[in-house]
Design goal:
Layout lengths: L1 H11 L16 H11 L3 H26 L4 H20 L1 H30 L6 H11 L5 H12 L4 H6 L6 H12 L14 H36 L11 H17 L14 H21 L5 H12 L7 H13 L4 H12 L2 H16 L1 H31 L1 H19 L5 H7 L5 H6 L6 H25 L5 H26 L1
Length: 507
């Protein structure tokens, strides 16, 4: 949040100046209002600051390229403009991404809020103020808009109408706004809202499923042709050898950005394990097993502590990852009358993931209100988790379908780059031996190779191959990346040496 405040202060410095604006997104009225209400800024100031960022990046890139490369001036201007546009676009999108991120978090927890409020509707006294109860629920959840609800609660105590405060509220999530307005219009007494209606997050994930193969193809293209293109840049000596080292962090940043933008688009579905790790999946399945058993035992009208103890005893032989942390807490539960609330807090710190935390927080709130009816609400959470797991299985099928292609590319790339890179250090010598020393060729091949330049070239290429292999393996959630990266590097070294030695013998 502090970084956002610095960003906003920087953009506001351009408010009074009549500078050009660089506009990337056509913001609708809702986003413009969110900029004003949530960040106290406007689109115009951000677009002015983006133009300043564009100019700064352009002149920096232009200056360095003229000093350190031998590219044609037109090419330098072209790629400097492209890099500057990318940088200014990233800068321009900071608030937009922050709103989108908060929207995803709010949409991910919306199911739990609906379930929590439905429990209040079922258990609250007839004359209780359900609007205030809803506000209290939102204060308890540790989400981006909880602070706003604290402000609303304070205004209500100062005499403001809670319904009017809620109806005027605008949050990053249009789904949450619609749900809130629905409650206000129905005076918080209607039981007919659909707990399991699909929200924007699930619809976005379905769109992502349709697009993921095309997005992976872009990542394949960059990952494969950047190292190969680098070979030809070095071959024609269009760049200072030392300047090549900058390409390593640049290439890593590009692939990392593409991976985050195109592939990691499903982080906030509470029932979805993003990395398909066997350990994480097993851990989550054990967690679900305990919850399912806990919900069943609560239905027996016993205390939450007894229900949890019974659930552990019923499943201790079928769990392994959660067995040790749960066993310690079960001992505390038996020996020192450990309260259920403290047990939940321990599990939150032990599991240490937003997915577990929001589920455990919801269960804690359910049990505090009514342990017996919590059984039904926990089952509703499990139904949502199963729904998300079905979506996750569809993604897993897509990723598994790409495995052969990825493994093929991982071992094809070092063969190609190794063959080329083993050849070009002696390209100049070959040209001179063939007495092919025209002015144009001398322009390209004027710098004879040495051990220093060959070492830098070797490091840059093997690093780029390692980066490509790492992100290709990350696409299919392969947890054993090191053996594949090592194998790919060894192939590169072998082909490089074969090509290198053959050229020496030829000369």
């Amino acid at each position: 949040m502090k970084n956002i405040e610095i960003y906003i202060r920087f953009c506001k410095k351009f408010h009074k100046y009549k500078t050009p604006r660089l506009k990337f997104k056509e913001l609708n009225e809702r986003y413009q209002n969110l900029y004003r209400k949530l960040y106290n800024t406007n689109e115009s100031d951000i677009n002015k600051a983006s133009f300043f960022i564009f100019l700064s990046c352009f002149f920096i890139s232009l200056s360095f390229s003229i000093l350190l490369t031998s590219f044609n001036l037109l090419i330098i201007i072209l790629y400097s403009a492209i890099l500057s546009l990318i940088s200014s676009y990233q800068f321009n999108s900071i608030l937009y991404k922050d709103i989108s991120n908060n929207e995803s978090i709010l949409n991910s927890i919306l199911y739990l809020i609906k379930i929590d409020f439905s429990l209040i509707q079922k258990t609250a006294e007839t004359n209780s103020d359900k609007c205030l109860n809803f506000i209290r629920i939102m204060i308890k959840y540790n989400i981006p808009i909880s602070t706003y609800f604290k402000t609303v609660f304070k205004r209500v105590h100062e005499g403001k109408s809670p319904e009017e405060e809620l109806i005027e509220m605008q949050t990053p999530s249009s789904d949450f706004d619609s749900f809130t307005k629905y409650l206000v219009i129905n005076k918080f007494d209607n039981y007919d809202f659909d707990l399991f209606a699909e929200n924007s997050l699930e619809n976005q994930f379905k769109i992502y499923l349709k697009q993921v193969q095309s997005k992976m193809s872009i990542l394949f293209f960059i990952g494969l042709f950047f190292p190969i293109g680098l070979c030809f840049i070095i071959l024609f000596q269009l760049i200072n050898v030392l300047f090549l080292l900058i390409f390593i962090p640049f290439f890593f940043s590009v692939l990392n950005l593409l991976f985050k933008k195109f592939i990691r688009n499903q982080n906030y579905l509470i029932g979805l394990i993003n990395d398909f790790s066997r350990i994480e999946r097993k851990k989550f399945e054990e967690f679900i097993t305990i919850l399912r058993s806990f919900a069943s035992n609560l239905k027996s009208n016993i205390s939450p502590e007894q229900a949890f103890l019974k659930s552990y005893n019923q499943n201790k032989n079928s769990i392994s990852i959660l067995k040790k942390p749960l066993k310690n807490q079960i001992s505390n539960l038996i020996n020192s009358s450990y309260p259920f609330r403290e047990l939940i807090e321990f599990l939150k710190s032990e599991l240490n993931s937003w997915r577990y935390i929001i589920i455990l927080d919801a269960i804690k709130n359910f049990v505090d209100k009514n342990a017996y009816f919590s059984s039904e609400k926990i089952r509703e959470i499990l139904a949502i988790i199963y729904k998300h797991q079905k979506l996750g299985k569809k993604l897993e099928i897509v990723m598994k379908g790409e495995k052969f292609k990825i493994y093929f590319f991982i071992f094809l790339l070092p063969v190609i780059t190794g063959a080329i890179s083993g050849f070009f250090p002696f390209f100049t010598i070959i040209i001179h031996n063939l007495e092919f020393t025209g002015d144009i060729l001398n322009l390209f091949f004027k710098n004879p190779p040495n051990l220093y330049s060959i070492g830098i070239i070797f490091i840059v290429l093997i690093s780029s191959i390692s980066i490509t292999s790492y992100y290709f393996l990350k696409l299919i959630y392969n947890i054993r990346k090191f053996p594949f990266i090592l194998g790919s590097n060894l192939i590169f070294i072998l082909i490089f040496l074969i090509s290198f030695i053959n050229i020496i013998n030829f000369i």
